[in-house]
Amino acid sequence: MRSGVVAFLAGALFAIGLTVAGMTQPAKVIGFLDVTGAWDPSLAFVMVGAITVHAVTRRLVLRRRAPFGAAAFDEPNARSIDAPLVAGAALFGVGWGAAGYCPGPAIVSLGTGSREALVFVAAMAVGMMAHRFFRPRVRDVLARALPEAPPVPGALGVAADG
After folding, report:
1. Is 154 strand, coil or helix?
2. Residue 3: is its pLDDT beyond 60?
3. DSSP character for 22?
4. Assigned domain for 161 exists
5. Does the pLDDT at position 161 exceed 80?
6. What are phi and psi of 75, to 5 degrees?
7. Distance between CA 19 and CA 93 in Å, rounded?
């Protein structure tokens, strides 16, 4: 129960922050990304503020033995840059630039009744389902096509421990 309340409060605070910062306004986001035209640098200040708060808070939180509402911290262990990471980052950037939304602000914008946010979130959900469906199949096709090649840790869902 306590972890659910903490998660709700954290999500509400995040939603308020996104709204106050203007991240739920696609025109503002696109203005920030338009560095050769009518560039709006205000979101750079939002990013610098968020990075600063995160850096300080992370150091403080990781001094604890465990987070609130969980037995242990769940830290990612992958440290490599591979093709799926680069492709995912590129796809995220293209989607952000084309729509003016990234996932968090789009979900927050659903509360406004925005048709654009609804279309974006629906497309994002379809993309996530397609990823779940196609990723194992791509891995299997590559394994059959390149049977002599050893698996590359972190590439196309291959676990880092083998």
Report:
1. coil
2. yes
3. T
4. no
5. no
6. -95, 140
7. 20
